[in-house]
Amino acid sequence: MSDGDYDYLIKFLALGDSGVGKTSFLYQYTDGKFNSKFITTVGIDFREKRVVYRSDRPDGVSGRGQRIHLQLWDTAGQERDAMGFLLLFDLTSEQSFLNVRNWMSKSHPLSAAGAGPG
């Protein structure tokens, strides 16, 4: 696929404690490569991947594939135009797992004080 040759553009923001492997995860997912020597991300790290999603109709026939351009951002929470979030934690750190709840509340659009109905 060339630039602009997609049906959907979806932006995801990777969230989690420092050092849990956000950058490593993004590189593994987009490039199939793992490098354990990454240093802490300063500023913005940005990865892209193009995928084709095919869904089967109830009669078992595959429909036309939807071409999706994924933008995966690791920005220390600075990107505000994300359509979804990847919440990551380190399996060897219970605290990073417990902190996922904090990351969820920070990422939820209604989590800001005074937001929502009422």
TrEMBL record:
<dbReference type="Pfam" id="PF00071">
    <property type="entry name" value="Ras"/>
</dbReference>
<dbReference type="InterPro" id="IPR027417">
    <property type="entry name" value="P-loop_NTPase"/>
</dbReference>
<keyword id="KW-0342">GTP-binding</keyword>
<dbReference type="InterPro" id="IPR050305">
    <property type="entry name" value="Small_GTPase_Rab"/>
</dbReference>
<keyword id="KW-0636">Prenylation</keyword>
<dbReference type="GO" id="GO:0003925">
    <property type="term" value="F:G protein activity"/>
</dbReference>
<keyword id="KW-0547">Nucleotide-binding</keyword>
<keyword id="KW-0449">Lipoprotein</keyword>
<comment type="similarity">
    <text>Belongs to the small GTPase superfamily. Rab family.</text>
</comment>
<dbReference type="InterPro" id="IPR001806">
    <property type="entry name" value="Small_GTPase"/>
</dbReference>
<dbReference type="GO" id="GO:0005525">
    <property type="term" value="F:GTP binding"/>
</dbReference>
<dbReference type="GO" id="GO:0016020">
    <property type="term" value="C:membrane"/>
</dbReference>
<protein>
    <recommendedName>
        <fullName>small monomeric GTPase</fullName>
        <ecNumber>3.6.5.2</ecNumber>
    </recommendedName>
</protein>
